[in-house]
Amino acid sequence: MPPKRPYSGDPSEQSGIKQTRLDSDRPSPSPVTTAKTGKERAAEIAARIAAKNTQATSERTPAQMARAKLDEIRAKAAAATGMISKPAPAAKEMTPAETARAKLAEIQARAAAAAKAQAGNATPQLTPAQQARAKLEEIQRAKAGLLQSNGAASSRTASPGTFSVAVFDDSPQARGGLRVGLHPSLLGNAVQETGLDGNRHVGSESPATDMQSGIRSAEMTDNPYFDPAALESGASKRRPHRKLAFNPRGKYIMQGNAMRQQARIEEMKKAMATQMKKADMDEENEKPFLVPAPPEIEWWDEGLVDGKDYEDLDVPGKIKIDTDDTIVLSYVQHPVQMEPPQDKNRPAPKPLFLTKKEQAKVRRMKRAAITKEQQAKIRLGLEPPPPPKIKKSNLMRVLGEQAVKDPTAVEARVNREIAERDRAHRETNEARKLTQEQKQEKVEEQRRKDAAKGIYVAVFKIDDLCYGKHRYQIDVNAKEWGLTGITIFHPSFNLVIIEGGDRAVSQYKKLMLHRMRWHENDTPRAPKEGSKEVEAAFLSQVNEDGSLKDLSQNKCQLVWEGKQRSRVFKKWGTRVCHTDSEAKELLERTKMSNMWTQARAMT
Prior knowledge:
Layout: H1 11-22, H2 38-55, H3 62-81, H4 96-120, H5 128-149, H6 151-154, H7 184-193, H8 207-222, H9 228-234, H10 251-279, H11 283-286, H12 356-379, H13 395-398, H14 400-405, H15 407-432, H16 436-452, E1 455-462, H17 468-480, E2 484-489, E3 494-500, H18 502-515, H19 532-535, E4 556-564, E5 572-576, H20 580-588, H21 593-601
Parallel strand pairs: 2-5
Antiparallel strand pairs: 1-3, 1-4, 2-3
Helix pairs in contact: 2-3, 3-4, 3-5, 3-8, 4-8, 20-21
Keywords: Coiled coil, mRNA processing, mRNA splicing, Nucleus
Pfam families: PRP3 (PF08572), Prp3_C (PF06544)
Main location: nucleus
């Protein structure tokens, strides 16, 4: 609802309205209105339009000001010429709205006639400045004449809102709470906003808007810069009436039932997924391997064969080798020659194999050379001569006279020398013997040399590892040979992955495939506390009834062996996995999940 504005009409009318409000408690006649002729009412309307346009002139652009001045001139000219004629008497009494609509139509017709007459007496086309100056002079003349003829009417100003015809409605529907008629300035808004779509009048728009649009329509069409699309886009669009739509019976009950059914289905899916995970029934593990069909033509041959297959290889024109558009060039690339990387790991050549007699002969020759060199040093005085090596067999020959004089003393002397030589020999051997740390270092050095030649990988599949002795042998031998890898215990089968040097992997293969007896089983021992094997029930050596498990069909298979660039596992370890997904997730870290799939496919 628009805000209240002070009444700017005739004081006599305002006093009449006040008197009516005071006498509202008793039946009162309609508000007093002043009867006016058609000329006076038209003059009053023109004066209001002129005052309104004059008030908004300061806030408009030059083009808008010129257009507004032209409208004012036409309205004032129509009022000054006195061309307005009295309307024909109606056959029956008209309502105030119909009266205002009829008067507005007459005003538009007379304004159009005045504009046509003015256009007939048009002068030659002037410049924009001259046109503006002429319009300004014409406005001043029309304003002066209008003020002289309509003194009191020209002083009244129009309301700030949309102009509407000042017509009073004395009907009870148009009165307020105190049975007071609507103000003329509020009549236009009341006509637009009252009633539903079915009760609205045909002429719902304000008369002032219709008059202004009729007066300015000719100017808009004559303007070469006028765009009708801008007028259409700026026009207000009435919001369509929305009818009441009632929901059918049971709509939300059906929606609730559907949501509850969907929730039950989701719970069933989750329960089934949990059961499948516990039972290890993943479908992807049971799928057979599908070998893709070979393509019609390989991608590296697409540029050499004119076609999509190899059927026309015998046709000379179908092979792009000697043609102009071939990708084969006449140049030959000679890459830089590099030494093969395996030469640096090539072992040293082994010495020539000798028989026992040849080995003894070589040993005698070496000792003879050493003795001869020592004798030469003694002759030259570089070394003292060694003491005679007296034994009981050469006692009389070396110490003949002394042995005859005192054989007991000579024998004791010989025994002391023999014991001294034996002690020196043992001390020398002990000095050459390696300590435990040196032995371990030597073993580690041999393992490093073996691993430097290349890292080899071997994967084994064992059906059952419930016997503790088998698990112990697998674990201890892997640590002794310096292997890295993992042993995965699973209810279906067990997987052992090792990696290390060539010799270590070869010895471990002999252990797994030949030396170990996989069909053995014995009475179980009490497991250690805190061991992971205690938690796995499938690693028990006995059945549920207490009898030993039958391992007669137990076996070990070599799944895959090969060479890789470097070690994947940092150490040796074991892991218990109850499902295939856990095992695959564990091996996915080392990019060996395909080994589990390959072992699963083996029978």
